[in-house]
Amino acid sequence: MKGGELDPKLQAELDKCLRCGMCMAVCPVYAAEKDEAAVARGKIAIAAAVASGDLALDDREVIDTLFNCLVCKSCMTACPSGVRFDRIMLSLRAAIVEKNGLPWLKSAIFHILKQPARLDTAMKMGARLQGLVFRDNPGYRAISPRSPFAMLGRDAGFGADRLFPAPSPRPLRDRVPEVVTAPRAKMRVAFFTGCSFQYFYPETGLDLIQVLTENQVEVVVPQGQQCCGTPVLVHGDAATARTLARTNIDVMERSNARYIVTGCGSCGSAWQHEFREVLREDPAYAEKAAHWAARTYDVSTLLTDVIGYRRPTGAVDAVVTYHDPCHLKKSMKVAREPRDILRTIPGVTFREMSQPDACCGSGGSYGLTHFDTSSDIARRKAADAAGTGAGTIATGCPACMMQLLDGTHRFGNGQTVRHYISLLADSYRRTAGIA
Amino acid sequence: MSDQAFATQLEAIVGAGNVRTRKVDLVTYSYDATADVPRRIPDVVVRPANTGEIQAIVNLARARGIAIYPRGAGTNLSGGAIPLAGGIVLSFQRMNRILEVDAENLTATVQPGVVIEELNNAVAPHGLIYPPDPGTVKTATMGGSVAENSGGLRGLKYGVTKHYVMGMEVVLANGDKVRFGGKTVKNVTAYDFASLFTGSEGTLGIIAEITVKLIPAPKFRRTMMATYATIEDAGNTVAGIIRAQVIPATLEILDRKTIETVEAYAHVGLPLGAEALLLIEVDGMAETVVECEADAVIRTVAEHHGELRLAKSGAERDQLWAARRAALPALASLNNTVILEDATVPRSHITGMLLACAEIGRKYDLVLGTFGHAGDGNLHPTIVADRHNAEEMARVHRAVEEIFQTALQFGGTLSGEHGIGIAKMRFLGGEIGESGLNLMRSIKDALDPWHLLNPGKLVPAREAPHEGR
């Protein structure tokens, strides 16, 4: 595949890179591997070589390198010339899919999994995710084989050294009515749960709903909502990402809610940025995507900046540190609000780690396809968190919660990992004498 | 050059995981941070773990006549890390350990792959700093910055890299390992080898270990910004501050084009229409001394009609610094190619040099902003252009040449801190003459008669001078 087939807008984006290498200071993959091909500057050079025909896009070595990226967007915060590296990465991946199809890409990624033991882990994780994410969406059964997880196979158990949350036997949306009313409600918002709250952390989702209702906010939890599409988008499957975006927008249009609230940086980022991007040229949906993008809040922002939340009074005795999820901080620009909330909880002693916004190494399926690097990144995070002496690591994204849980189990001292909203919910419950 | 047998021999030295031969990897070692210089894909990238491995690589390469290009993080601005003749890129990314921080002797000993900021983080708990602070402190390596003799924002008061290198371990082209210097403040034993290898741009030997001097971190500082209606007033302020016997830690200048671009880019509240801006920071160990120096600066600014803003808090200091930090990103946002020069003049000619740079920009119809270290005469005339426009790039080259000539006419130098590398090699004779070039060649030939180490950089070949930029 030669450069002529790449989007001309991509070339302009590649041209913006000065090769200054500032991205090396913040790239988690580079910090672990210390190889130029790991960092954005190197990947841009590879993309430029593809554009000029020096390298083939569907070369397995090129694929291998392009997928060695968490799409955490850290590089974009350090880039002096504002290169939209996420766009470069996603459009290259989409170009691969367009050229050779998803099954080809799956086998190419499969090829990355060289170590049999890791492959085993990956297969099991994939089987669970595939089975779960698309389980109760009969309409989407059809697309499930196209999901990146489909390549990972079906049966087999997890490696003994890994700790993942067990998928809940009762998903979140089975546990709540579609509309959760609040006494003397001032506002109605829609909770976009995302897959992780739905299947792995339904209790955290319930905490989020409780905090909102205690603040006189009525919560719609639309039953028809789907995956936000980030997992398929980062694997180049823009078509499925578009379908999911349209369905989600339709669902929200019917919700009668003023705002969309998320508790996951990737889901919120999808609503604020990715839906607009993938639907940019869709006449029926571009405007709707922009409408909801401006009305999507991380729950912390809604609480601190939009409604002015009720200050918690119940004591939660804990030393807490906070991990900034990449997509929450670097894409949604939310970093102050969760800290503000934690600091208002009586009994909480807040301690910053030295690099709270360094990526935890999760990156969706990255931990499966690039196990060693992901583990190395997780090890650094665990050491930084342990250095604070905090017994609780709070964060604002369920995907980070999974990675941190595994990381503290393997490399840390087994700290408790909580979503910040659960700590606030704990405090409210203590006041009410429930806990 | 490279064949499978050679790669296998390298693997025997450093291990299979530390030899890169895939094209996709090699492409990423074909460049450094320098704009508008040739690129070349190396034949192989090798990542040694210790001095012994470096010696074995050098011996193997010499036997095969294959060039070696040492590389830290590849952030230099003179083409120093580009493998011009293919061959071996020797990456220091695995040799990245801080070997010792000796707070009693105020020294640190590091492997070359340590990032400058990591060293500063490691010495900070001792109340110490390693002062050289190029704009790339978060990414550049100690080995690279010693080889390039990097400067930085604090050069005026604290000097540059060469003032901090106390000792080294170096692998020579003949495969020998030599150690010299060390932790003593005084040392006149043998030639001053640390000075010879610092700034040698990888052409004389491969630096494998470095011992540097540390200093106590200043405890107090005052930060201010002054804007001016004329460049002359700003230039006279710089001279006036030095005449008042104040040596600021930072004395930075931005010209009108840079101010306008920064304001449009970052909206930090700079006065549009100002011809120049100075960012001034004084620091020291005693509050009264720092206050005294700040007062002298404030008086000097007023004498020269500057409009002063004084930072009263850490947040206000950050605001003042934001303008300087945004200078390069703001200019870079204007087009796809940024030619960042570092022509340097004696401090007394700062005004003349700033006016000349602006005039050169107009003459060649280019977007040219100048900012830089006014206190030490080290300016960064920065040209922003479209690399796909050959006609414009030709004008850029003529403008750059004229900037160099102007700097030399003012009694200045081609490069204050970026080095010669590929980018400025053809101008070298203009500054040091044929006898100077011959001295460089003699030194190069004495230490590396095989021209094994970073060939094509810094030292122009005898017969056919390198013409390309």
Summarize the structure.
The complex is a heterodimer of chains A (435) and B (469). Chain A has 435 residues and is of the alpha/beta class.
Structure, explained:
The complex is a heterodimer of chains A (435) and B (469). Chain A is an alpha/beta fold. Among the domains of chain A are: 3-110, Fumarate Reductase Iron-sulfur Protein, Chain B, domain 2, CATH 1.10.1060.10; 310-432, Rossmann fold (3-Layer(aba) Sandwich). Chain A has helices at 8-15, 28-33, 40-51, 60-66, 74-78, 85-100, 102-112, 116-133, 172-175, 194-199, 202-214, 230-233, 238-253, 265-278, 286-293, 299-307, 326-331, 336-343, 366-369, 371-387, 398-410, 420-432; strands at 179-180, 187-191, 217-220, 259-262, 296-298, 318-323, 348-350, 392-395, 416-419. In chain A, the strands form two sheets. In chain A, strands 1-3-2-4-5 form a five-stranded mixed beta sheet. In chain A, helix 21 (398-410) links the parallel strand 8 (392-395) and strand 9 (416-419). In chain A, helix 11 crosses helix 22 and helix 16 (299-307) packs across helix 18. The longest helix of chain A has 18 residues, at 116-133. Chain A is globular. In chain A, 54% of the residues are buried. Chain B is α+β, with helices and mostly antiparallel strands. Chain B folds into four domains: 4-91, 2-Layer Sandwich (Uridine Diphospho-n-acetylenolpyruvylglucosamine Reductase, domain 2), CATH 3.30.43; 98-216, Uridine Diphospho-n-acetylenolpyruvylglucosamine Reductase, domain 3; 220-409, 3-Layer(aba) Sandwich (Vanillyl-alcohol Oxidase, Chain A, domain 3), CATH 3.40.462.40; 429-461, no CATH class. Chain B contains 14 helices and 18 strands. In chain B, strands 15-12-14-13-17-18-16 form a seven-stranded antiparallel beta sheet, sandwiched between helices. Chain B has a five-stranded antiparallel beta sheet with strand order 5-6-10-8-9. In chain B, helix 1 packs antiparallel against helix 3 (51-64), helix 8 packs antiparallel against helix 10 and helix 9 (256-266) packs across helix 11. The longest helix of chain B has 20 residues, at 390-409. The radius of gyration of chain B is 23 Å and the shape is globular. Mean pLDDT of chain B is 94; it is low at 465-469. Classes of the chains: A alpha/beta (435), B alpha+beta (469).
